[in-house]
Each structure stands twice: as C-alpha cells, then as structure tokens.
Amino acid sequence: DATDYAFTKDGSVRTWTSPKYDTVHTHGTGCTFSAVITAELAKGRDVMDAIGIAKDYIALAIKHNPGLGNGCGPVNHMAYGLLSNGTETMDELLKNDERR
Prior knowledge:
- This protein is of the alpha+beta class.
- It has one domain.
- It has four helices and two strands; from the N terminus they run ββαααα.
- Strands 1-2 form a two-stranded antiparallel sheet.
- Strand 1 (about 1-5) and strand 2 (about 15-20) form a beta hairpin.
- It is globular and about 45 Å long.
- About 20% of the residues are buried.
C-alpha cells in the first residue's frame, strides 16, 4: 500500500492509504497531487478533504497510466473523466474499478 500522512498544528496525524501499483509510470505525481489539492481548496474544500481527493485522483491516474515512453512515463490525468459514469466519487470509482 501507499500511505500519505498530514500533520496538523494541533499535533494530530491524518493518513490516507491506497493500493501501490507496480509501475514506473509515475512521472508528474507530485505536481499533479499539489495541483488537485490547490483546485479543491479553491472550490472551498477543507484541507484534509482536498488531500483525500488528491490521493484518490493520483491512485486512479497511476493505475490507468498510458504506458508511454521507455522510462518513467506520465500518469493518466484523464483517468477519472474517462472511467466515471458521472455519479461516482473518485474514491468510489477506485474501489469499484475492475480494470486491473
């Protein structure tokens, strides 16, 4: 599994865990993760909720990477839009996704 941690100013710790996928196609994960958090904050979401959404987004993007290049290729930034039926959250889609 891949676990991320957030430490708050009051000393509490929040964790998010997703499956760890065996792939080298992870280029752009850090920038994408921070961009999703920023976008969710701009929509008015709580910081911890924004991190959770970003975690789910990255998990889908890694899982459904396009397999480009001979080395560390990019993640699939369109995974949620391509796989969603429009009613599922990213978390639900990740849990229900049978395309492994």
